[in-house]
Each structure stands twice: as structure tokens, then as C-alpha cells.
Amino acid sequence: CEELLKDVQKALYYVVPAEISERGESGVKWVLADVDKYFDKTKEKNTSIALMYHLYKEPLYANVPQEKKDLDILVIGFGMYGRKFLDIILPIAQMPDKKLNITVIASSCKDKDEYLRLRPQLSDFFDIDGSVSHEKDNYGTIRFLEHKFSLEEQNADYYLKSLYNDKQPDYTFISIGKNTDNMKLALMTGFSTIVCPVHEGKHINGK
Fold it and tell me: What is the CB neighbour count within 10 angstroms for residue 117?
């Protein structure tokens, strides 16, 4: 039973929001009755539907100049919401004459490993950290970086802007933990493009 409980707790890391999954990293045991409330129970509360509606209201192309050849998307935080967001945008972000470039910043490399393990054919179509030759046609690039943000971090905006050579991504999705943390980091980015932190359905539009 002890071994089974450990396996269940490990599995829950990947299906609950980041603020809850962090308990596993700190060694805190979960009570299953408490975790249950974080699962989607009704269609109205379904995370995937909420994200698709959000993208309908704030489409990926809304901030991309017509003459721009790239669509640069930044995903900060790769828990349940970050993974679902990436799953949804991979097919809908395919646009004529736009090269799709996605950067995912995860707090742990195991988030990337687990995501790709469950999607083994993804690297056949996307260049994931150099998995596909530049000469070969692909649907876009996905690069994974490991970084755990601290809200006391004075150079968070510098770190993010350095990823784009002082430019900005066209679209940023933030889900690092608590709603308040998402909002704080969104404000810290200093981006003037669309920044969408997970926070009760709200977003920041810097335009």
C-alpha cells in the first residue's frame, strides 16, 4: 500500500495545478480528498474548454504584424495548465507564412521529459531542442528551458527579454502557481505584447 500511495502521489504531480504539485517537490503528503476538488468535474469548468474560449477571445495572431515572418509564443510554467495550453496551440498556431517558435520555461526538467514521453511522435513534426535538422521541413520549433522564478527576483524581466535578444514574444502564457504569483510575474515581464496569466479567467493585454 505504501508503494501504491507513492505512485499515486507521483502521478498527481502531472494532473493538478502547479501550486498543489509543488507539495510533492517539498515532500508534503497529499490528502486525496483535498486534491479531488482540482479535477475537472463539469463541462463548464473544463480547463481545455476554458483555454479554447480564451484563445477565441485573445487569438494568437492578434499582436503579430502581417509582415512578421515568425510567431513567437512563450509558455512560463509547465504544470497542468501549461501542458494543456501547449497541446491546444500546436495545431491552431499553424499559419501561412509564419514560422512557429515556442519557448517553454519549466521549473523542472522532469516536466519536459514526462510531456514528451506521452507524445513520442511530436519530435517527428516539431524541432524540439534540435531534434529535427534545420534543412528538414517541420511544423515549428519548441525549446524547453529550466528556470524557477522567484517573485523577489529583480532581474526576471531581464532574463525573459534576453531570450528574445531584447525583443518580445508575440504571446505569453503564465502559470507558475498561485493566481497572485501569475499576476505578479505578468507585471514583472514588462512586455507590451499580450500577456495571459492564469487568474480567474482574467488577462493582461499590454497593447
Answer: 9
19 Cβ neighbours under 8 A, 6+ residues apart = 177, 178, 181
The span from the first CA to the last CA of the chain, in angstroms, equals 54
Q: Which of 96, 12, 84 lies closest to 52, judged by CA? A: 84
Q: How many CA atoms lie within 13 A of 36 on its CB side?
A: 4
User: For 55-82, how does the pLDDT look when each residue is reduced to its tens digit (9 = 90+)?
Assistant: 888 888 888 888 888 999 999 999 888 9
Q: What is the DSSP-derived secondary structure letter of residue 30?
A: P
Bridge-partner residues for 142, per DSSP? 102, 128
Q: What is the DSSP letter of 79?
A: S
Q: What would the grid cell of residue 155 be? A: 532581474
- Residue pLDDT, tens place only, 91-136: 989 888 888 999 999 988 889 999 999 999 898 889 999 877 665 6
Spatial separation of the C-alpha atoms in residues 186 and 134, rounded to whole Å = 32
Whole-angstrom distance, CA of residue 124 vs CA of residue 196: 29
